[in-house]
Amino acid sequence: MKAAIYYQAGPPDVFHYGDVAAPTTGDNDLLIRVEAISIEGGDLANRRDIAPKPNEVPGYAAAGEIIQVGKAVQGFSIGQKVATFDWKGSHAELRAVPAAHCFLVPDGLDIKVASTLLVGPGTAAWAIKLARLQPGQTVLILGAAGGVGLAAVQLAARLGARVIGTGTSQASLAKLRDYGLDDGIVVGSTPASEQIRDLLDGNKVDAIIDSVGGATLVDALDVLKEGGIAVLIGVFGSRSTPIDAGRLLMRRQTIIGCLLGNQIGEAEPRRVVTEVFDMARQGQLSAPIDACFHLSDAASAHRRAEERGRIGRVIMTV
Q1: Burial of 189 (0-12, 13-18, 19+ CB in 10 A)
Q2: 179 near 113, Cβ under 8 Å?
Q3: What is the rounded CA–CA span in Å between residue 183 and residue 264?
Q4: Within 10 Å of residue 139's Cβ, how many Cβ atoms?
Q5: Neighbours of 104 (CB within 10 A)
Q6: Which of 21, 22, 34, 80 has its CA nearest to residue 60?
Q7: What is the pTM of this model?
Q8: Which of 42, 97, 150, 217 has the highest CB neighbour number within 10 Å of its CB?
Q9: Which domains does the chain have, with CATH numbers?
Q10: What is the pLDDT of residues 192-218, one digit of tens each?
């Protein structure tokens, strides 16, 4: 089968398009003929920093048609369209993936859109669930223009929360107003926490959804209410950030790590993610696509996905 692979970590130009062995299917797996691939933040980080095993196919998220069903699998059949997640294997014509990591694509939902829903919107929905966000509360979304952030803005607004988002560009934040953003905070010389205190007249936020991490999270905790919850999705800012445990104790604050990929087979996360697919089908959740490339041009696709100022996912078709 054809796949986009690389042999060493580095910039997008490390990609090669060529033939690799087709994946083998276990009793609990589905074999998918891939139609659309969503390029996720983890795909970019892995390509830049982690050398793969020989002939290992990279990539988290892809959607396509089931062409083989493992002996122990129930609830799926050949010919159905599914969106899939795993820690590798999306950048190829065929993908073998655990059935527990697959979700049926509802009739009427575009397969390209479906490929983008698991990682970004799915994570956003699960994070909002973990944050226990309620109507009328205020949520701060760090990295609001990213794949998770864009969905979190929509879902929080739909819930009836006041939505504050941070980003590096006023232009990008302005676009998010169409998706439900109430207030945009441009990060830069003035700490976000200081700008938020001014915006809220000294009041604080009820919850934080953070896809950045590092010093950005530490700063945001300063404007989290007593008893508030911060949900950490990304650690692009730093994997080893000191956090004042005494302050967490005195303010009764909670920080929860949210890695949907490790829970995607569990009943409650699956229910939440399935609702995301239904919302997208009904037009209640938008998952815009920024650009589309063929799998053979994975380098250009990854290059575009690394550009700032975009709204929406970059995808590849097969």
Answers
A1: exposed
A2: no
A3: 32
A4: 29
A5: 16
A6: 34
A7: 0.94
A8: 150
A9: 2-118+286-317 (3.90.180.10), 120-261 (3.90.180.10)
A10: 999 999 999 989 999 999 999 888 999
